[in-house]
Amino acid sequence: MIDFGHFYQQIAIGPLSHWLETLPCQIEQWKKTTQHGQFNSWQKIVQNLPNITPTDLDLKTAVMAKNEYPLCPKEKQRITQLLKSLMPWRKGPFSLYDIDIDCEWRSDWKWQRILPYLSPLTDKLVLDVGCGNGYHMWRMVGEGAKMVIGIDPTQLFLCQFAAVRKLIGNNQQAYLLPLGIEQLPSLAAFDTVFSMGVLYHRRSPLDHLYQLKNQLVSGGELILESLVIDGDENQCLIPNDRYAQMRNVYFIPSAKMLKIWLEKCGFCDVYIVDQTVTTLEEQRKTAWMETESLANFLAPNNIHLTVEGYPAPLRATLVAKKR
C-alpha cells in the first residue's frame, strides 16, 4: 500500500511541521471516500515491481536509471508489462534500465525551456502544483532541491510516481500527495512553487494565484506556465464549451494580461520568459499513451486552430517573486 507515514516524519521538524495539524486527517478522509475503482489494482502493480537501487541515476539531464549489469530479458519484459498496465503515461520520458517510457508529452522540452530562468534550486524546498506523475519533480531533485512535494489528485499519477520512485531506489527527496491546491493551508514555507498547466482549469484564476502565493516564503519564486493567446493586456479567451476537446477550460488570457493578474495579486519582478506553440512533436500519441492526443484536437485542415475554431495551444511561462 502507498503510505505517507515517512513523509509525515520528514516534515515533523522544520517549516512544514504545522501542516501535520491538518494533513493526516485529509489523507485518511481521502482513503475512505475518494478512491478510484482501479486504485487497488494500480497499487498491486506497484507492489509487484522490484525494489531496485540503480548504480547510475541521472536526474540532471534526464530521468534515467541504469545498473552495471542489465536486467535479464525475462525480468525486463515483466517490468515493462507492469509499467504498461499503468497506462496512459502522459508526462515524461523515463528511461529505466533500458525500458524507455515514451510518454504523450515531451516534458523534457518544457523543462529545458524554463530551466535557464529559474533561480537555483539547490537546497530549496519546492512545491509542484498539479504535478501529474512527477516527471518534473525528479528534474527538480536533479537540480539539487532539498525536498520536492508534488500535489495532484489523480490517483493513476500517484501510482505512476510510486512506480518510478520504487525503481530508482525509493528516493527520499520527492513526495506526491493526492491533494488539490485548494486543500492546502497557507503554509508560507516553500522557496519555489511551480504551477504548470493548471491555471486555465481553475474557475477563479486569481484565487489560484493567491493560493500559490500563500505557499511561498517572502522572496520566494513562482514559476507559472499556462495556455495563453496572442494579444495585448486586454485580451482573454473564455471558451464557450470545450477548448481542444477539454471541457474544464475557463480562462485563457494573453501573457501580458497574465502578468497583470500576477501583479494585481501582489507578486513583483514579474517576467514573461517564454512563449511556445505546442507542436505535434511535443504532444502526441505513443505506444505508452494510445488514446487521442493533440493531432485529434486541432482542425483537420488548419493546425493553427483547435477543432472548435479557437487559436491552437500556445503556452507561456512567467516567473515572479512574492514580496
TrEMBL record:
One of its GO terms (biological process) is tRNA wobble uridine modification. NCBIfam families: PRK15068.1, tRNA 5-methoxyuridine(34)/uridine 5-oxyacetic acid(34) synthase CmoB. GO terms for molecular function: methyltransferase activity; transferase activity, transferring alkyl or aryl (other than methyl) groups. Its EC number is 2.5.1.-. Carboxy-S-adenosyl-L-methionine binds at residues 91, 105, 110, 130, 152-154, 181-182, 196, 200, 315. Catalyzes carboxymethyl transfer from carboxy-S-adenosyl-L-methionine (Cx-SAM) to 5-hydroxyuridine (ho5U) to form 5-carboxymethoxyuridine (cmo5U) at position 34 in tRNAs. PANTHER family: METHYLTRANSFERASE (PTHR43464), TRNA U34 CARBOXYMETHYLTRANSFERASE (PTHR43464:SF95). This is tRNA U34 carboxymethyltransferase. Homotetramer. The keyword Cytoplasm does not apply. It comes from Arsenophonus nasoniae (son-killer infecting Nasonia vitripennis). It is an enzyme of class 2 (transferase).
